[in-house]
Design a protein that fits this description.
Length: 226
């Protein structure tokens, strides 16, 4: 219920602004010189969910194809951002095996967890697919990871930007002014409670990534099965 309230608050605060074209444009999304990199543990949606998200995006593209639509290959839920993206981060600075070991320990006996994707929410910067963990598995994993990494001397910046509590997928980022703000926001309202599917979390990926989880840049360092 708290998670639904959070998503509701986001939507209610931003939908009026979006309908007026009052958005915040990401000026770095098309910048080839962007060198922000980080380390993330993430969850990939299944093919059925990807297809439903893509169908939603197609409705928005008909109205405004100029925004950034997260490709199916890049769709993800952040389980935890271990090293938040910053300019100059280099994999050679860390021992990946040490990170893998902590993640493996944290995954021991984690309860099975389903993720339900239902509805969309938005901010002035982006459109998000709402994710809802079914069960305590994801929360337990995040808490273990926080505790285990903070007890280590490894480089990490967990929760440095904000404490992650949601299980959303970013679907659209605003890269330019909206072509038709009222129509765009109308589609968002139409999909406010749309069903995008349910999945069982069977694996997680530790990745070296840019800010946008672009598959051309992302390196999968290890897959963990649950």
């Amino acid at each position: 219920m708290e998670l639904m309230q959070l998503y509701d608050n986001m939507f209610n605060q931003s939908i009026g602004q979006i309908s007026r074209g009052d958005i915040e444009i990401d000026r770095q999304i098309d910048d080839d010189s962007d060198r922000r990199r980080g380390l993330t543990l993430l969850i990939r949606p299944n093919d059925e969910i990807k297809a439903r998200v893509e169908a939603f995006q197609d409705e928005l593209i008909k109205i405004d194809g100029g925004q950034y639509y997260q490709p199916p290959s890049d769709q993800h839920v952040t389980a935890l951002s271990i090293i938040s993206c910053y300019e100059g981060f280099d994999l050679n600075e860390i021992q990946i095996r040490d990170y893998e070991d902590i993640i493996s320990q944290s995954l021991n006996d984690i309860p099975s967890t389903m993720l339900k994707f239902k509805g969309i929410t938005a901010s002035r910067e982006a459109v998000l697919i709402q994710g809802f963990p079914m069960g305590e598995g994801l929360k337990i994993l995040r808490d273990r990871l926080r505790s285990n990494f903070r007890s280590s001397d490894l480089q990490q910046s967990i929760d440095s930007r904000y404490r992650l509590a949601t299980a959303h997928m970013t679907s659209v980022r605003f890269r330019r002014e909206l072509r038709s703000p009222a129509k765009f926001s109308g589609i968002l309202q139409d999909y406010r409670a749309a069903d995008f599917g349910v999945m069982n979390i069977k694996s997680l990926e530790l990745v070296y990534n840019d800010w946008y989880q672009n598959s051309n840049i992302v390196k999968t360092l290890r897959r963990f099965t649950i």
